[in-house]
Amino acid sequence: MKKLSKGGLVLLMLLLSAISWAQNKSITGKVLDESNAPLAGASVTVKGTTLGANTNDQGGFTLSVPATAKTLVVSSLGYATREVAISGNSISVSLSRSISNLDEVVVVGYGTQKKVNVTGAISSVRARDLENVPNGRIEQTLQGRVSGVTILQNSGQPGSGSTIRVRGITTFNNNEPLWVVDGVVVDAGGIGYLNQSDIESIEVLKDATSASIYGTRAAAGVILVTTKKGKSGKLSVSYNGFYGTSAPAKMLELLNASQYATLMNERSVAGGGAVLYSDVASLGVGTDWQKAIFNNSAPRYLHEVSLSGGSEKSTFYMSAGIQDQT
Question: How far apart are alpha carbons 44 and 31 in whole angstroms?
């Protein structure tokens, strides 16, 4: 067997390089959007292979493809995918926007998910749902309007807070949901300053998708409150108010003093004891403590006034409110 000389080996390597170069060709091109602006980050691949490149800030790309390649696939997020035939060494591609699937996508945190996956995890209450609802606190406006959320008032005292549970008890420690008003995190007791008529919408995030934004603080759910904003145009003045009275829904039927004394005497005698009250009639009816404690016509009122307006450069929205409940 003959050995190749040094010169022959170099010649063989050059020959193999030439053959390999002949099997591939370099293609340059540019990807544009509908307005002929450069589209950065678009993907350009050879159809049926993994060969590909991304466009630069100027929308340009350079790609080495096999000599037998016939089609390039060009795609970009939010644009319709196109297949372009390879007819030369320079290609220009224009992509059009695709809006057919936008209604099926919901932005969640720093990513997106299909709407069908998060519909049951997000509940919304709009401003029109809050109109003509004379509640004292915002959390009470959600009562009975959001599935999977339990709201119980802490006491019967007017204006008292409520206990809110999203998806039930989730931990041994803090089960209170995270309140976020216009992007600012507030504690559960810090939302009393909001007027009910100033709320544009309330969203309740009930599953793990909220953790993509707020982390472990969202373990017990997140309540997002969005307030109304000013709009450019003429000055707008709005008023919302009501006046009414409160009364117990039901009073318990109790014994009066004479009836109670009679019952105690019967119990004592039945047990072998003596009569406790010798003159039952002298006790009369006594005091009805329910009527003494409860107010059957406790007044309550609410007055809220807001002003909004602005120009194309800036807008404003300001409001004030007063509420009292006996």
Answer: 9
Looking at residue 169, its amino acid is I
DSSP 118: H
Distance of CA 104 to the CA centre of its chain: 16
Percent helix / strand / coil, the chain, rounded to 5 = 25, 35, 40
By DSSP bridging, strand 315-325 and strand 298-310 are: antiparallel
Determine the Cα–Cα distance for residues 129 and 98; give it in Å rounded to an integer: 34
The alpha carbon torsion through 264, 270, 274, 278 (nearest 10 deg) reads 40
- Could you give the CA distance from residue 203 to residue 205 in angstroms, rounded to a whole number? 6
Alpha helices in the chain (DSSP H): 6-22, 115-118, 127-130, 138-141, 211-214, 257-270, 289-293
Q: What mean pLDDT is reported for the chain?
A: 79
312 - beta bridge partners? none
pTM (2 d.p.): 0.53
pLDDT tens column, 265-297: 999 999 999 999 989 989 999 998 988 888 888
- Least Cα distance to 165 among 178, 175, 173 occurs for 175
C-alpha angle 129/130/136, rounded to 5°?
150
Contact in structure between 210 and 222 (CB atoms under 8 Å)? yes
Other CB atoms within 10 Å distance of the CB of residue 195: 20
For the stretch 17-45, pLDDT in tens is 544 444 678 889 999 998 888 988 899 99
Provide the token pair at 31: 């990807």
C-alpha triplet 232, 195, 121: angle, nearest 5°: 90
Q: End-to-end CA distance of the chain, in Å?
A: 112
Query: Counting beta carbons within 10 angstroms of the beta carbon of residue 162, is it exposed (0 to 12), middle (13 to 18) or buried (19 or more)?
Result: middle
Please state, for a pLDDT cut of 90, what percent of the chain lies above it.
18
What's the CA gap between 72 and 63, in Å, rounded?
A: 10
